[in-house]
Amino acid sequence: MTIPKEGEIIQVHSYKHDGNIHRVWSETMVLKGTKNIVIGANERTLVTEADGRAWLTREPSICYFHAEHWFNIICMLREDGVYYYVNLSSPFVYDNKSLKYIDYDLDVKVFPDMSYMILDEDEYAVHKKRMNYPEVIDKILHNNIDRLLSWIKQRRGPFAPDFIEVWTQRYEFNKQVRDNQ
């Protein structure tokens, strides 16, 4: 299995359960790549939706993907603090300079004070029926929501107080190295 290397620029591909592409982030810089974890960063990156619409991300983000957990975490660095957007998703796979996962609709928005909202439960219900999500997927996703909420409350992983500082510094360092090449 190939592993993305620190400083490498990759794409992030989000799919739906039926195999159709959902969204593509054109450039994410790898800050850490192992067989289980990829931490990346991007800012003002082009995102292309399945219907062809495209937009630029607004703020710098640190992205956390895990090969064993059924969620990924986007840490958006805004002037008034760090906001987190969590996608309930399959664990990632890395293939051909692209990190890939299946988006399972449910999202959790976490605010700088660590309060949170679970989003898109209605979209999940529609897609679960339309794409025939197996019952085992439903159980896995709900167990992972519980795990995620525990991480938020315990300030684990990307929610830890020093996570953003460490990875933002690594991002700035890698940008300087890249700019000086």
From TrEMBL:
Entries under HAMAP family matching the protein: Ntdp (MF_01568)
Cofactors named for this entry: Mg(2+)
Family membership noted in the UniProt record: Belongs to the Ntdp family.
Stated name of the protein: Nucleoside triphosphate/diphosphate phosphatase
Top-level EC class: hydrolase
Gene3D superfamilies documented for this protein: FomD-like
Pfam families for this protein: DUF402 (PF04167)
EC number from the UniProt entry: 3.6.1.15, 3.6.1.6
Residue positions of the active site: 23 (proton donor)
Binding sites annotated in the UniProt record for Mg(2+) 1: 87, 103, 107
Record keyword Signal present: no
UniProt domain DUF402: residue ranges: 18-156
